Amino acid sequence: MSYQIDIRCQPGYLYVQAWGTRSPKNLISIVKDYLKANEEHGYKKILIDLRSMTGELSSFDAYRFSNTAAEKIEGSHTDVRIAIVDLEENRKRFSFLEDASANIGLSLQFFSKNAEAERWLSRSK
Length: 125
Hints:
This protein is of the alpha/beta class. 44% of the residues lie in helices and 30% in strands. The protein has a single domain (3-122), classed as 2-Layer Sandwich (Transcription Regulator spoIIAA). β4, α3 (91-103) and β5 (107-111) form a beta-alpha-beta unit.
C-alpha cells in the first residue's frame, strides 16, 4: 500500500501526479504532500491527477476520505481551486469530496480529462 507523487510547477497551476495504491490513507498523504508543496510555491490553482493509481475506494472509504481531506484543506486554503483528474468510473465516489469541499467554501471539481481541468482552472474564481 504505497504511492509515489510527482509535483511540477506548470504555467498558472501546480500539477500533482500520483500513482500507486488507491486507499484512503494514501490519498490523505497525497493531500498532505500537495499542501506542503503548495506552501513552498504559493499556487492558487492545483491539478491533481490520480488516473495512474490502482484499486478502488468503497463508497464508505470515499466518504471518509472526503471529510478528512476537507478538514485538512479547510481554513487558509479556501481561496484555492483544485481540479481532481481521475478515471470516469470514479466520478461518483468523488462527488462526496466535491460536496464536502463546497460545504467549507473550497472550489474543487472532478474531471476525467486534463484539458477539461485546465480550462476550468484557467477561469477566474
